[in-house]
Design goal:
single chain, alpha+beta, three-stranded antiparallel beta sheet, TTHA1013/TTHA0281-like, Type II toxin-antitoxin system HicB family antitoxin, TA_system_antitoxin
């Protein structure tokens, strides 16, 4: 199993208070949550899903 390390950009919407995050290195890797704890869980899941979709050349 390969191990990867990614940086995520996280912002909080001032009006709704929702946290929004995306991983610039993974196209399509973005998510949102109402708490940082849930955002971390969501980010892990979306990174795994995006990595599954990569072809052998992209991986």
């Amino acid at each position: 199993m390969r191990h990867y390390q990614f940086s995520a950009q996280i912002e909080r919407d001032r009006e709704s208070g929702v946290y929004v995050a995306y991983v610039p290195a993974l196209p399509g890797a973005y998510t949102q949550a109402t708490s940082l704890d849930q955002l971390q869980i969501n980010l892990k899941e979306v990174k795994e899903l995006c990595l599954e979709e990569l072809t052998a050349e992209e991986n």
